[in-house]
Write a structure and sequence with these properties.
Layout lengths: L9 E2 L2 E2 L11 E5 L7 E7 L2 E12 L12 E8 L14 H14 L11 E11 L4 H15 L10 E7 L2 E4 L3 H6 L2 E8 L4 E5 L2 E2 L5 H28 L3
Bound molecules: cytidine-5'-diphosphate.
The site of cytidine-5'-diphosphate has 12 residues, from helix 2 and helix 3.
Length: 239
């Protein structure tokens, strides 16, 4: 057993933070929180606190990156030095470069980039506080910042992870579950399109468990999708 590893993850049907296996942490989304960005969003998801800011469509620098037929989407994920227990060295590292890339791939399919040739749409994701699942929180925040900027999109992109802890499939891992659990499966989808735009896996599932975890993650995405739509209604009204 590793240092800090709990003896049991589920006691009397409840997880260590009191949630049921299929329950999300508390999620709060607000859009339009930054005056100087074209679009922005703030997401609290359990102990994660994440800001996203969108700029564009705007001129591309450096110019050679511009595409004649579409806008380029650039996503930058970064963790504040104070976002984790051990101070994180500022600046990009392998992990943040990877998460920036998968975030772009998760969002690109919904953005009508063809409407804005020779431009760039930039999204910056700042992790202010991290508590497992920051890539999903970042994708949700970025998708809201794009919508807040008025970028034409086919849909919002919700994201959510499922995983395996103490032999059980659970939704939305907490930090202890992420550190000591058996598997983590973050997923992003385009609702109504049956499209999966992010799927990564850390750890191991046994036969049949992957399908169960995937289904649970998609259900989590649909719950997040409702909260995303509510946040837009709250800011902009509408039915
Ligand atoms: O955040 P996410 O689950 O998408 O990615 P991860 O690479 O699986 O990281 C899991 C968690 O480890 C993060 O959410 C942070 O809470 C923590 N972490 C950390 O404490 N220090 C780092 N330099 C990176 C991650």
């Amino acid at each position: 057993m590793k240092i800090g590893e709990p003896e049991k993850f589920i006691i009397d049907g409840k997880r260590l933070d009191g949630r049921k296996p299929g329950e999300l942490r508390k999620v709060k989304i607000e859009v339009g929180v930054l005056k100087k960005a074209d679009g922005s969003a703030y997401v609290e998801w359990g102990g994660n606190k994440v800001l996203a800011a969108c700029y564009g469509p705007r001129e591309v620098h450096p110019k050679h990156l511009a595409r004649a037929d579409r806008a380029i989407l650039r996503c930058t994920y970064s963790m504040a030095p104070f976002s984790v227990t051990d101070r994180k060295r500022p600046g990009p590292d392998r992990r943040s470069i990877e998460i920036s890339k998968v975030t772009r791939q998760a969002l690109e399919p919904v953005v009508f980039t063809n409407l804005f040739p020779r431009t760039a749409i930039d999204v910056f994701i700042e992790i202010l506080q991290a508590q497992a699942g920051t890539r999903c929180t970042g994708i949700v925040a970025a998708s809201m910042a794009l919508a807040d900027a008025g970028i034409p999109m086919r849909n919002l992109v919700p994201a959510c992870a499922a995983g395996k802890v103490g032999g059980e499939i659970v939704l939305d891992l907490s930090d202890v579950e992420d550190n000591f659990g058996e598997a983590d499966l973050p997923v992003a989808i385009v609702p109504q399109k049956d499209e999966v735009t992010l799927i990564q896996m850390d750890g191991n599932f046994e036969k049949g468990e992957f399908e169960k975890a995937f289904k649970l993650a998609v259900e989590g995405c649909m719950k997040i999708y409702e909260i995303q739509k509510e946040a837009l209604k709250k800011r902009y009204g509408g039915a």
